[in-house]
Design goal:
By secondary structure, this protein is mostly helical. The protein has a domain at 103-206. The chain has helices spanning 2-9, 11-21, 23-42, 46-120, 124-131, 134-148, 152-174, 179-186, 193-206.
Amino acid sequence: MEGRFAEELYSESLQLSKLQLDPTSNANSEQNLDRVELCHEDGSCDGFSDELDDTSEVTGEWMKIEEKTRYNQHHTVGYREGVIAGKEASSQEGFNIGFKQSVLVGYNWGLVRGVTSALANLPDGLREKLIGTEDQITGLQGLYESVHSLSTTDALRLFNDEIMDKKAREQRENADTSSLEAGLAEQIPDRSGLRNHFAELRSLLLESPAIKVHLDR
């Protein structure tokens, strides 16, 4: 009776002791641990190998995407900077050509406006002493009114017409054209109004030696 009671009471403890003392169980546990360590060391286990392969593929794809993104960014930046540099160079070249063509005409046009304004606003007695004849005074007044009736836009249009007429004359001189074409070309009018105004002012000043204006540069 006592032996049976003791066996029931300590059955669990006895079973645990058997497990701890069983050499076969210990050997199997050690083998399992060794197998796990080998999986970590050489990657021979299928589960770990698959995970590593998936990680490598994701990393490779990400690197390709990043490389392509950087290439596109640098390509876009380079294209934009190239276009900007080209625009700046073209604008500067156009400015240089335009300035070269217009600076002298603009300077002369400013002289015409300034001189005619100054003479037209003189007192009548002083203007008669400086200019002399009535015809010269009338011519000066007409030039003053003609010049100041033109706006800045009108002056630019006249200057553009002058450039176009000059190109047409150069083409007539350099191209081998028939007599009919030459006759039609001769019908192109000379509309260089800005230069005409300057030439008229020069003529009036030459007839009025009392007025000292330096027109030659």
